[in-house]
Amino acid sequence: MRYEFDKTLETGHKIIDNEHKMILGVANEILQAIEEGLSSKKVLEAINTFARYINTHFPHEEELQEKFHYPNFRYHKLWHQSYVKEIELTCDRILTEGISNVTITELKRRIETLVQHILLEDSRVAKHIQNIADSNKE
C-alpha cells in the first residue's frame, strides 16, 4: 500500500501540508523497503528518518494550535507524545526481533494510525484555524 497526499489530507496550512507530504513519502519508503525484503538495518534507518520528521513536525503543529487557541490542544499534544513512544517501541521491537510478520504488521498499523490522525484530527485543527480566519475577515 502506498499513501498519497491528496485533498482529503490537506489542512490548508502550507508548512504543515508540506511536512505531511514528507512524512507520507518516508512512510512509503519504509513500506517499499519491507516489500523489497531489505535488511532490518535499512528498514530501521527509514523508520528513524520517519521519527525525525515526526519529532520536527509535531512541535510545528502544536505551535500553530497554541497560536490559534485550539480547544483540543492538550489532547492533541498528548496524542503526539504517545505516538512518538509507540514508534520508538516499534523500532526497539524490530531491533530485538527483526523483521517478521508481527513487526511488519505493527509498523504498518502505526503508519496507518498517523494517516488517520492527519485525516481526522489535523483536519479539525485546520477547520478551527479557518473559522478564526473567517471571523477575523468580518
Write the SSE topology.
Elements: H1 14-35, H2 40-67, H3 73-97, H4 101-137
Helix pairs in contact: 1-2, 1-4, 2-3, 3-4
Structure report:
The protein has 138 residues and is mostly helical. Helices cover 81% and strands 0% of the residues. It has helices spanning 14-35, 40-67, 73-97, 101-137. Helix 2 (40-67) runs antiparallel to helix 3 and helix 3 (73-97) packs antiparallel against helix 4 (101-137). 19% of the residues are buried.
- Give the radius of gyration: 16 Å
Number of helices: 4
Kindly report how far apart the N and C termini lie.
44 Å
Give the biggest beta sheet: none
**Helical/strand content category:** mainly alpha
List how many beta strands DSSP finds.
Answer: 0
Hey, roughly how much beta strand do the residues contain? under 5%
Fraction of residues in H or I helices: over 70%
Order of helices and strands: HHHH
Write down the overall mean pLDDT.
Answer: 88
Low-confidence blocks of residues = none
What coarse outline follows from CA principal-axis ratios? elongated
Keywords:
138 residues; mainly alpha
In short:
The chain is an all-alpha fold and about 140 residues long. The chain contains 4 helices and no strands.
